[in-house]
Amino acid sequence: MGTLKAFLSILLRDWMMGLGLLLLLGILFMAATATVFFPNPPETMIGPPLQWPGQYPGALLGTDGLGRDILSGLFYGARISLLVGFASVAVAMVFGVIVGALAGYYGGWVDMLLMRLTELFQTIPQFMLAIVVVAVLGASIQVIILSLAIVSWPAIARLVRGEFLVLREKQYVQGCIVVGMSDPRIIFLQILPNAMSGVTVMSTIMIATAILMESALSFLGFGDPNVMSWGSMIGLGKNNLRDAWYIMTIPGIALLVTALALNMVGDGLNDYLNPRLRSQRGSR
Amino acid sequence: MKPIRRRVPWAFLARRVLYGVLAILAIAVINFFLLQLAPGDAAEALAGQAGTADPQYIAQLRAQFGLDQPLWHQLWAFIVRLATLDLGYSYVFNEQVSVLIFQRMPATLMLMGTALTIAVAGGIVLGVTAARFANRWPDRLISLGALLLYGTPPYWIGLMMILVFAVMLGWTPTSGMENVLAFNTGWDRVVDIAHHLILPAAAQSIFYLAIYIRLVRAGMLEILSLDFIRVARAKGISERRLSYRHALRNAVLPLVTIVGTNVGNFLGGAVLTETVFSWPGVGRLMFDAMFQRDLNLLLSILVLSSTFVIIANLVVDLLYAIINPTVELK
Amino acid sequence: MIPHPPSAAPVLEVDDLQIGVRKRPAMQILRSVSFKIHAGETLAIVGESGCGKSMTSLAIMGLLPDAVERRGGSVRFKGAELPITDNRAMRKVRAAQIGMVFQEPMAALDPLYPVGKQVLEVIEEHEDIPRAKAWARVIDLLARVDLPNPEVLAWSYPHKLSGGQLQRVVIAMALACNPEVLIADEPTTALDVTVQAQIMRLLKRLQRDTGVAIVLITHNLGLVAHTADRVMVMYAGYKAEEGQTRDLFLAPRHPYTQGLLDATPNPDRLAAGGGVLREIPGTVPSISDPMPGCRFAPRCPRAQEVCRASVPGPVFEGSHGYACFNPVPAARG
Hints:
The structure holds three protein chains of three kinds.
Chain A (H helix, E strand, L loop, with lengths): L1 H12 L1 H23 L32 H37 L1 H16 L2 H12 L3 H28 L2 H8 L4 H38 L9 H8 L8 H28 L4 H4 L3
Chain B lengths: L9 H28 L4 H8 L5 H11 L5 H13 L5 E2 L4 E2 H36 L4 H15 L2 H15 L17 H39 L2 H8 L4 H38 L5 H10 L3 H29 L7
Antiparallel strand pairs in B: 1-2
Helix pairs in contact in B: 1-4, 1-12, 2-3, 5-6, 5-8, 5-10, 6-8, 7-8, 7-10, 8-10, 10-11, 10-12, 11-12
Chain C lengths: L11 E10 L6 E10 L4 E5 L6 H9 L6 E10 L2 E2 L5 H4 L7 E4 L13 H12 L4 H14 L5 H4 L9 H13 L5 E5 L7 H18 L2 E6 L2 H7 L2 E6 L2 E7 H6 L4 H8 L4 H5 L33 H5 L5 E3 L2 E3 L11
Parallel strand pairs in C: 3-8, 3-9, 6-7, 7-8
Antiparallel strand pairs in C: 1-2, 1-4, 4-5, 9-10, 10-12, 11-12
Helix pairs in contact in C: 3-4, 3-6, 4-6, 6-7
């Protein structure tokens, strides 16, 4: 397992990536154990409202304006954030990879057409488009995942196209063409695996962006009204900005930690997968 | 001592304008079909807003808006209205949609311009500093700060800034664009607006500041390792001049492109910032339109914002060609 | 051949210069390098890549990379020691007293400024003269390096010029403030063969006009034969041999010099039945190799016990010096 060993050595050298992975595991743990630690749904009122952290024994991180446990909200919110982040990027990746691969592999008018379409979607302000999609299709987790996928795929498509343009000219690909391998085989089995490292790094960072965008939608009140999300917690907490600012501060920190962890992992992966770029981050 | 003038790239401009128009058209068509996806049509929505579900009234509205016509007919009418900037009437706000949007535009542009300026200026100064002290403590501090800012939800930063600077310290107002009740005029009004502008502009700039710092730092490190920097050093040029005149101007080229692509994201971010700070701009209007389910207004804002992004991208490309002589605009 | 009286003071003097990698005491890039050069003279420094010749030139300019430090020795310009580790102080020396021409003309200029501006920058940095006057000098300099139409060319951006034209601009930049020493580090390696000859002729002509001393760093012995007055051969951070070009080429004393000459195509020698090219066996030792003796000994056909035990000191026969215990006999067959 040479690659695993190399990966572990990078992890030891790059403490930032290690820390990022650790934080990410912590958040995954929260999402996985939400029902274990908090059998009641997070909307349950468990005590008096506006209890500061440490003030009320039943709620470690206090209660919100309706007497709901903030810590429970954090645990359940982690589920929503991770679900939306990973699912939307997964959908965006499937679509982006297909568009980018076709454009980069076939070139010519296919490339022209697909790239114009991609540019078109990049012209529309991302967050506004997400809002409009939610407005038109209604606020539910599925729609939010779809809307974030719609705004995320163009970046992946462009990246994949760029990789394909380069890889298509490589000797081994030309060899596959000469021996008469079918296009789908070449695209998905020969070129794509070699183009995945950049996509992996980018998707890690994009999960963070998607999580932040979901929280923003929920914060504005455009999220799924049936689930507890960190963004909606902040949105409700801002009404108590003056007298109980901890309500909006705590889920904000949770979001910050999650996004930070994903970015740290993304940076680390970048160093690991593209070692030639490493020097850019080092000294001259 | 006279430089050779570069000619105006008319062919490039013509092509780009044509492409821009086509892109706006395409976005409008996408919008049109998005609207068709919505449950119910505009007539039902309008009737709902008017507080009635009378089928006769709805049918009358349908005829009035041409909603009883075939789809392609509706599409054509929609495009014609768009071309004449007739975006319809908002019954929610009792105003022409185009008037509504253009009234709100200056506030958003002011917010965006200030935020962008802060982000670019801060990004350059901090990025160059980080690169000049690469892997020493100023760099580590700046890079860590950039990483933190990059992961922070921008609207949450806005709230925290309100909490700290407006509520706790009382340095700035909590929200709004000006103190309307003070009836300020002239210079007093400018100062008042500036006072209100500080927090939202700072809040909106932060995320982009983080990106620009990282970008400038990486670019500077790359450029500083190039041959021509060593040659310039051999000319006896000072390190400061080397950093700013030679390295920075080269390192800033990718920044120009990124800022161009970020203009669209800035507009999206404005929805959040303007909502948090009750800033009376297009973003806040969009939030209100969403809240009131005024779909026509919502989509009009989207189309106009995209138009703005297309213009901004063209300006950025021209700017890029001006500072980078190796680029030929074709 | 030598235009200076033997008694004249040298314009540049490098004395026992030692350079190593910072925080790595075992890594010694220059072990001991000394040489002098007089006004109007061309000294060629030759050797394989990695022998330290480029590091020597960077040290003289005070342009050593951050990862590298001076471990001893000195550089003197007209008798005064240069503060080569002080970046700020060296700024006044660079271009004003010692100019430098680099190997890669295509990458030597900032792509965002017209070439004339980049020459102007040198003058403005070192001299306090009106801009119009400085610009006139830029045009004059571009004309002197044989660039056509200098008024127009001064406003061209680097990507519009050829490699040969760019190298002329770099030479104009290096000579803009009339330095007394010009270091040319592989100035023609990246250019076409026909352009190489033009650039070297240009350098020699400018030297005749201004009396500038040229340190020519190269691995091209053919170039050295035609342009240099004296030659210094370096090997693995040491000076192996030094002498008048003619003496050194006709009667090399250090086995390494002879190896270099034997490995160079030479029509004269072939015509005289000198045989085919011979390469030097083995490779250059690592800079951190702590061998006690002559660093060439492992590859040397004449190596003896003493060569592997201690480092040979320089032996001088007139102006011809070499560092070898068992030199090639002076009379060559």
